[in-house]
Design goal:
By secondary structure, this protein is an alpha/beta fold. It has 14 helices and nine strands. It has helices at 13-22, 29-41, 55-65, 81-84, 90-102, 109-116, 126-132, 149-161, 192-196, 208-218, 224-238, 248-260, 268-278, 282-292; strands at 45-48, 69-74, 86-88, 122-124, 137-142, 163-166, 170-173, 179-184, 199-202. A five-stranded parallel β-sheet has the order 2-5-8-1-9, sandwiched between helices. It has a two-stranded antiparallel sheet with strand order 3-4. A hairpin with a 3-residue loop joins strand 6 and strand 7 (170-173). Helix 1 packs across helix 2 (29-41). The structure holds adenosine-5'-triphosphate and magnesium ion.
Length: 297
């Protein structure tokens, strides 16, 4: 089993916040506090919230901040044990049997079988990879709400004991407990059992100040004035009754667009012209143009 305490990463909430800032991830106190607690308690963190608010990026940033290897399991409907945990490379196993058959002393059936279920023919997938890793690992189980219920149960097993049993090889236990993040867009409810094993972090759209900081950190060459204006306009947009509010990704795209256009302030004409970078529904664009741009659709 992994030694307890071996992967304690951040000494305090402030330390977590600082370390994340150093890799250009702007965490508010709630985010930093959960990251700190997760590392102290060695518990997975389930991160939920609207699209594009930095859920995936949080796990990537914790990996960067702690010099850990990032292992990502991208979830989708139909993802099964063979793609999440491990599978045997049957093509190479077949080839092996063929080659042995051509030799004179090819051995008996037991010997061949023993040979076939050898480490060499094992294809490790992200969960097993994370469990077996000698080096520190951040395991990102991304978009876990897309998993089928059976695969979710498998996940539960791995996250309970940090071990995987491979019938032909035996049980593999974690050498060190990985730092685990699960992200979800809340497309379906996750099982209570899975939630019970995790700390829960809801990331909402950032405050205007934090978004300004994010823009300054992520858009090279942007001026303070423009970053402030961008954050302010985005806040007003999010207060409208839109079908889909602009996410942080869209804020960054927009800020990059404005930087490319070499503007220093945002007038209503420029806003209306560049709205399609931010909003992806015509009715949202019309509403925003009317409310903020003073334009009739
Ligand atoms: N707090 C933050 N600090 C720095 N960058 C951020 C922050 N939050 C979001 N971003 C930026 O916003 C973009 C979107 O983030 P990310 O892909 O992590 O969103 P997400 O919540 O995983 O979205 P989805 O639900 O669509 O997968 C990234 O490019 C990231 O750089
Ligand atoms: Mg994501």
């Amino acid at each position: 089993m992994a030694e307890p305490g071996s992967t304690e990463l951040f000494a305090s909430t402030e330390a977590a916040q600082e370390a994340l800032r150093a890799v250009d991830y702007l965490a508010d106190r709630k985010i930093a506090s959960l990251v700190h607690l997760g590392s102290r308690l060695q518990k997975p963190i389930l991160v939920e919230g609207p699209a594009g608010t930095g859920k995936t990026e949080l796990a990537k940033s914790v990996a960067r901040a702690t010099d850990a290897r990032l292992i990502r399991l991208q979830c989708y409907e139909g993802l099964d044990e063979a793609k999440a945990l491990y599978e045997w490379d049957y093509r190479r196993q077949l080839l092996h049997i063929e080659i042995r058959g051509q030799r004179e002393h090819s051995g008996d059936a037991v010997e061949i079988e023993h040979d076939l279920f050898d480490e060499r023919f094992l294809l490790t997938r992200p969960l097993l990879e994370a469990i077996r890793s000698e080096e520190p690992v951040v395991l990102l189980i991304d978009e876990v709400d897309r998993l089928d219920v059976e695969t979710e149960a498998l996940l539960l097993e791995v996250l309970s004991d940090y071990q995987v049993s491979i019938p032909e090889l035996g049980t593999v236990s974690a050498r060190r407990i990985p730092t685990v993040f699960l992200t979800s867009n809340n497309s379906r409810d996750l099982s209570e059992a899975l939630k019970r094993r995790c700390l829960y972090l809801h990331i909402d759209y950032p405050s205007s100040d934090r978004e300004r900081e994010i823009v300054l950190a992520r858009v090279p060459g942007i001026s303070q004035t423009l970053a402030t204006a961008v954050a302010r306009v985005i806040q007003s947009l999010r207060s409208l009754e839109l079908k889909k509010k602009p996410s942080v990704s869209e804020t960054l795209d927009w800020a990059r667009t404005l930087t490319l256009l070499a503007v220093d302030e945002i007038d209503s004409e420029l806003l209306v012209e560049t709205l399609p970078v931010l909003l992806k529904n015509q009715s949202d664009i019309d509403l925003a143009a009317k409310e903020l741009g003073g334009t009739q659709p």
